[in-house]
Amino acid sequence: MDPNWDDMRVFLAVAREESLSSAGRLLKIDPATVGRRVSRLELALKAPLFTKSPQGYVLTSAGERLFEHAQGAEEAMRAAAGAMEGATKSLSGQIRIGAPDGSANYLLPQVCAKISDSNPDLDIQILALPRIINLSRREADMAITVSAPTAGKLLVQKISDYKLHMVATADYLSRHGPIRSVNDVKGHRMIGYIPDMIFDRELDYLNDLGIDRVPLASNSVSVQLRQASLGTGVCIAHDFTLPFHPQLKKILTDQVSLTRSFHLVRHQGDQRNERLNRFADALSRGIRDEVARLEAEAQA
User: Fold this and answer.
1) pTM, entire model
2) CA 87-90-92 angle, 5° bins
3) Which of 81, 132, 168, 218 has the fewest other C-beta atoms within 10 Å?
4) Is 157 a residue whose pLDDT tops 80?
5) Percent of the chain residues topping a pLDDT of 70
6) Where does a domain end: 45, 61, 84?
7) Beta strands 234-238 and 216-217: pairing type?
């Protein structure tokens, strides 16, 4: 009995999720069926592919060898489907983008809406998570990151630089006094990330400024900006978010001006996928244009 592609898909899901139930949710089949399909594949290959541990289903040495080949087959099939679809005028199907919540909330909605206008049969999903998206587990087709990853078989493309400044409301400053230097900031209530939940070194803005206490903290940029907009404290904000929060004014612009970059990260095996290539080009171009537009509006 030869293995079939459907069983390979189940195998890949279990290998990535390390759980029959999680793989079942991903594939929309019940866990018992997942278990039977894995057993059928092991029987066809005459080798055990997983061992059960307290952490879940772990690949055996035979499973690890199969995993490499199965990923290659998956990438080839995705590339073939992408080539056929990429040849058509408009894109269709589903594409999922993983992104930190700053870009997910303030850039991707309008960028993806424009792409959708040109591709009415395309379903675009934005996965906003306060952590690095795991592309190897196929959480998303591509991801926006702040740091360029250096490990794994990934395609990494710089999209755009963006600026950040310290901000507060006029009402907050009138009640708590002016801020003329970074040293003055230490006497004010800071808003920022939860220190032990900062998932990227590039986001540790306050520590770089010598500020070690964050009285109002959240793992979400949107929550931080909402708090600052209410006049409750001082925070670091992306310039491209400021048109959405007109109450916030930049302060200490001559002393605190940060630059970070967005990168587009994709599976290396998708570089021949014309459909994803076209979408990635449109996404990158849209983000660059939107950052430039919003930063110019914030400056004006």
Assistant:
1) 0.72
2) 95
3) 81
4) yes
5) 94
6) 84
7) unpaired
Residues 124, 270, single domain; the answer is yes
Counted domains in the chain: 3
* CB-CB contact of 155 with 268 (8 Å): yes
pLDDT digits (tens, 9 = 90+) for 83-114: 665 455 789 999 999 999 999 999 999 999 99
Are 128 and 270 contained in the same domain?
A: yes
- Token pair listed for 37: 């399909």
Residues 92-130 as b/e (b if ≥16 CB within 10 A, e otherwise) read eeebbbbbbbbbbbbbbeebbeebeeebeebebebebbb
Cα Rg of the chain (Å, integer): 23
By residue range, what is the domain housing residue 184?
162-260
The confidence score (pLDDT) of residue 2 equals 60
Residues 67 and 207 occupy one common structural domain: no
Among the candidates 84, 104, 124, a domain finishes at 84
- Give me 127's structure tokens: 């996965």
Span 214-226, mean pLDDT? 95
CATH number reported for the structural domain that contains residue 201 in this entry = 3.40.190.10
SS3 track for the chain: CCCCHHHHHHHHHHHHHCCHHHHHHHHCCCHHHHHHHHHHHHHHHCCCCEEEECCEEEECHHHHHHHHHHHHHHHHHHHHHHHHHHCCCCCEEEEEEEECHHHHHHCHHHHHHHHHHHCCEEEEEEEECCCCCCHHHCCCCEEEECCCCCCCCEEEEEEEEEEEEEEEEHHHHHHHCCCCCHHHHCCCCEEECCHHHCCCHHHCHHHHCCCCCCCEECCCHHHHHHHHHCCCCEEEEEHHHHHHCCCEEEECCCCCEEEEEEEEEEEHHHHHCHHHHHHHHHHHHHHHHHHHHHHHHHHC
User: What is the C-alpha to C-alpha distance for residues 288 and 166, in angstroms, rounded to an integer?
Assistant: 22
Bridge partners for 168 per DSSP: 249
